[in-house]
Amino acid sequence: MVRIGREHxxxxxxxxxxxxxxVEPGGTAxxxxxxxxxGQLGSEDQRMKGLDFTVMNPATGPLGIIxxxxxxxLAVKVLSIRTGRTGLVSILxxxxxxxxxxxxxxxxxxxxEDGKVIFDGIAISAVPMVGVMGVAASGDEAGDVxxxxxxxxxGNMDTKDVREGATVYFPVRQYGALLAMGDVHALMxxxxxxxxxCETEAEVEVRVDIAKRTVLDWPAIDDGESFMIxxxxxDLDKAAEEATAAAVSLISRTQDIPWEEAYMLASLAVDLRxxxxxxxxxxxxxxxxxxxxxxPIGL
Length: 299
Known about the structure:
Blueprint (H helix, E strand, L loop, with lengths): L1 E3 L4 E2 L10 E3 L4 E6 L25 E7 L7 E11 L2 E6 L14 E8 L2 E4 L2 E4 L3 E6 L15 E2 L2 E2 L11 E5 L7 E7 L16 E10 L8 E3 L3 E8 L2 H20 L3 H11 L1 E6 L5 E8 L10
Parallel strand pairs: 1-4, 3-5
Antiparallel strand pairs: 2-5, 4-16, 5-15, 6-14, 6-16, 7-8, 8-9, 9-10, 11-13, 11-15, 12-13, 14-17, 17-18, 18-20, 19-20
Helix pairs in contact: 1-2
């Protein structure tokens, strides 16, 4: 098993990345992650305003997967997520869905105890998830590839289904794939409406493998019941369009039915869910039940 300490982190998923450790396909790795603020917030007396935003959303890594090359698909099985004992949630004027209504910055420190996140005496079951996970982008990747921004390479997808037991798939763009991750939340609702979840440091253990047959243009998640296409764009309408187009195309190919029939089937059985609506690009996932989709990637 490979362990990558949180002192090894990136703030961009650019094509210039170099691996800090390597593992063979089928191998496991543990990523020690910072919280999204790189540890700059430590109490409720502190505010997001005035933080060093150049190190925000750090992603631990990158991990090179031996033999991975452009045209492959990387499969990342999330084996475990161990969070810290406390998390923080914070708001900032101008940020989030209702940022225009926020008068001043505010931070709350939340205990994480016995599998629960405690907010003002309300105990909510913790569901740890990885907010940032991705691979190195291609040299001609359009737009921002900072670890705060999602894209075809993955990145800050903030999708709560990236949790224990799920397998996350990425189209490989660079030799070695160069996997990195961070921004773990002990709990987050779909949308992440105030721009933060229960932010915490963590240790994430994964197993990586390579599929030589690629059918994906976007990252995807398999949670054992559904296969999800995760698409990001400048607004939610465009993200929904991208996720739907990818889902319909996948159904058409794997079920060997005309595109028009796949489109109708998608309207009957595929759910569109908002992952997040607060990052520089918005993220929507198209959730395709296994019962209408043959497993698209074989390892």
